[in-house]
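Changelog excerpt

This revision adds worked examples to the README so contributors can see how folded entries look when concatenated. The first example is reproduced verbatim below.
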Amino acid sequence: MPAALTALLIVVIGLLVGSPSPTPALGPDAPARQFSAARATPHVAAIAKAPRPTGSAAHAEARAYLLDRLAELGIPATVHTGSVATTFGVSDTGGDARYAGARVHNVVARVPGTDSTRPVALVTHYDSTPAGPGANDAGVPVAVLLETARALAEGPAHRNDLLLVFTDAEEAGLLGAKALVADPDALPPDAVVVNVEARGGGGPTIPFETGPDSGWLIGLLAEHAPHPQAGSVVTEAYRFMPNLTDFTVLREHGHSGLNLTYLRELTRYHGANDTADSVDPDTVQHQGETVLALARALVSADLRTPPVGDSAHFTAFGRVVHHDTTLVVPLAVLAVLGTALALAGAGWRDTARGALLALLHPVLAVALTLAATPLFTAGHDEFALYGDLTDHTTAFGVLLVLTALLGAALSALARPLVAPRHHALGALVLWTALAVATALAFPGASYPFTWTALGGAASALLLRARRTALTEVLAAALVATPVAVTVLPLVLLLPDALGFGLAAAATALLALALPLLPQAWPAPRPRVTIAIAAAALVAVTATGVAAAPEPAQEHRPDHLYVRDADTATATWLSATAGRGDRPPDGPGYAEADGADDLFPGWTWPFRRAPAPDLPLPAPVVDTRRDGDRITITARSARGAHELAFFVTGARVLDHSLDGARSDVPDSDDPGPWELWVRSAPPEGVELTLTLAPGRGRVVVLDRTSGTPPELDPDQGRQGPPAIGAPTASDATCVRTSEDLP
């Protein structure tokens, strides 16, 4: 019916108009109390001139810049140093790796409140990966905190203490955060935390991780942020992802708070193209105004007894809708009751056939997506590294259109067996089942299923009661609105969050929702639908492939130069080289199963090639035994700020670094034990081990970023990002080994 179609268009137009875009970046002349991206971005340019891994000269320059800017703002800051040992299980190269910081330097600034009820901490990290300048991650969050502090200082004195915390060595294993929670003078244990991150190169800033009892913080975001964006399905999903940030450590130590990030343009993440020139001012503006709004609300509030409980929440018409998670199950029960009423008299066989057809659509959509993905990704080196394209907008849009056309053709072909009404009712059964399952297992992720099931049930009941032009309009609105508000935003978010390689999750969700819509109006004739869908499938696919974006950069494999000082031999390794690729010097790469002879325990399938032996000095190592404990002192003879220790032949029972004992038990794995020490000082480090009986041997190596310039004149070129095996990306290592006493 035209009236029903009009209702759907009204809903879609309402979404577009009712969800305003974030305020464009404000200029340097913006009001002093407002956040200005133009005032913030110079900070990004200042600290993101070059990679700044912890311990590097650029890293020290960034720390000095922070101290200078805070001093200009009149905010006293101190540098908290410490040694940290920690572990994260299996490394990216297959070994049982640990990561430690010999000297981590956290910058902490404090603005006292007038009558503090609880401290508020704005947190981000100021180091980057060795692979790129880290303009977005985390140059933008650093700039956001500095500009937020400036804007807050322009207003009246605030009630609660405010801490600005810039952690060290986040990229090296959350080491600065580990040192932070061990030092109550740096971060009070009751501080409310807003951690600011960037995982990509653009998009709105959203909460993607929450602390315990954080529902009230979502309420503050909804009330005070000028353009809030949030979805509890994101925070629910993040709990099952392997990603870690400083907030992971803070949350585990009981801190309440939010973890904020933006997600789009994944291929700028941890890469050489994450430069200051690539930073989007509108993205900076949205993150900044969100953080400033939260900070203003928190430093002014009474935080002595914040409400308990978590929330289910989503963005609709430019606002965040939120309710306590205790309502999740009752809403799912209501959806079950509504669906039961809608199914009354429908015939269970017809409904079952409709449910099977509704389930078949996402299955076929996934198959179609997986089949079409290689057409869009062929020749894109960035896809192999990230599972995403530099710009996946066109390709993903084509997949969505193909999914919709597939659904139309499938529904038309099955119409002799399944009427549109039973197709929609069968889909409603599936959505209601998902609503119940998620309400019980994943409360934060239940809202798209529950509200869609409620809308679908209400639409079916209305049409069964009376079918007129008016009821068809209302029925179309009832089912289309929750789909448009809760499902479509999630469909569009998934490729940004997961990458184009997992676009099948988005097309499956869309395919599951589409059968709900035809119940509100009669479908066109089957033959017409099939003909249109078939022609459009071919046309859209051809258009999508032709419009695929150009590859982000010319393929260039990474190279790792490894010198064994004991044998005076050297080797090229590459984790990303393809067939026909050559090292900077010498013959082509050969296949290899791993690099266990150089890095004990590494099982990554490196390609190898012989390399000229350069007279690079080995680390200086000394070992001594005191009872069952062995102390190893090591320093780099060539100024490297990264050391690694591999122990074989005897199991490590526990370890400490420069007197700081690891608070994570060592593995029972009898394989090689691996520890990487970041930010090693020139005088070296002292590692103390307790070993089980056995004939132990230690390999010690140092690592510097970049391959030897005399062998690789292009080593300063932009290389691939540090995704996959970052320890092995464009670096020089020198190793030596000896038996333990």
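The second example, added in the same revision:
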Amino acid sequence: MNTAKITRFLAEAIEWTPANKDEHLWGFDPMNDIAHAWMVVEWMLEKQVDIALDSGWECVFYGFNEEGNLEDLGTSEAKTAPEAICIAAVRALADEKQLGEMGIK
């Protein structure tokens, strides 16, 4: 999994703007920081991207596929909740080519 590409993809998707314009992506770490991962979730909810989160010991994420059916977004490779959020967000937003470039199956 290419965490740098995932971070850049999500930063561009949510149009993340750091407090210090010179920082660019520095300081945005949704793969490790739950607050930043939650910013992605809030953006998805605001944009009405279909994703449901169920928290507990295991993070399970669901989204709607092209046919309109609810499907598991498969975050089993995630080790933490922020990683699971990022993987689910990328799966909900990216196309097959982009997923491959980010190393997400």
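Reviewer comment on example two: The chain has one domain: 3-102. The mean pLDDT is 78.
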